[in-house]
């Protein structure tokens, strides 16, 4: 199932919910945990010899509606922080940091008393920062950053306690897709009070961060 398909399903469910009997919001959810994204694009190869990037993912959600005898609808805001590092031709240290902020919806359907299945998706902004430094001369470095739009969709399972303050665990698999990030090498200087001859930056290319994601999280809900 593609990102576009899952997002379409979420939008359709939200529209149906708007005209259906619903219960008032009852819970605020907070989930924090590790995530991994496998970026299969060849544009990642010069930065790192591995395609997987580790992230810390934080999601804040507020249940906004519940269809009678149906699923919960939760509005969410997510923040992910992670990156990659490696060396290029054993002469340059490379470091990529990637931050994404998204807003979206989660549709949850109870399966058992404490277990539910869900689909979630959203869109937002991603910021990448690429830095390179010489192995022989660490003081010689260049870096650049860029912004781009991003979307994601995921499906998973969640188990929670049935107490007033709920504690649980979430696991999901999904796909993230966004605009390519473009970087130009600009030499970093720490002597701003010194007059330098202007120099042109060199294009470091575009980076495609699309990939399959796997997330695990601890959930606290009230």
Provide key terms for this protein.
222 residues, mainly beta, eight-stranded antiparallel β-barrel, 1 helix, 10 strands, 63% strand
**Broad structural category:** mainly beta
Distance between the termini: 32 Å
Mean pLDDT: 82
**How large is the radius of gyration?**
21 Å
Topology readout:
Layout: H1 3-18, E1 28-39, E2 52-66, E3 72-88, E4 92-110, E5 115-134, E6 141-160, E7 166-178, E8 181-187, E9 202-207, E10 211-221
Antiparallel strand pairs: 1-2, 1-10, 2-3, 3-4, 4-5, 5-6, 6-7, 6-8, 7-10, 8-9
Describe what you observe in this structure.
The structure is a single chain. The protein has one helix at about 5-20, and strands at about 30-40, 50-65, 70-90, 90-110, 115-135, 140-160, 165-180, 180-185, 200-205, 210-220. With about 220 residues, it is mainly beta. An 8-stranded antiparallel beta barrel has the order 1-2-3-4-5-6-7-10. The longest helix has 16 residues, at about 5-20.
Task: Write a short abstract of this structure.
By secondary structure, the protein is mainly beta. The protein has one helix spanning 3-18; strands at 28-39, 52-66, 72-88, 92-110, 115-134, 141-160, 166-178, 181-187, 202-207, 211-221.
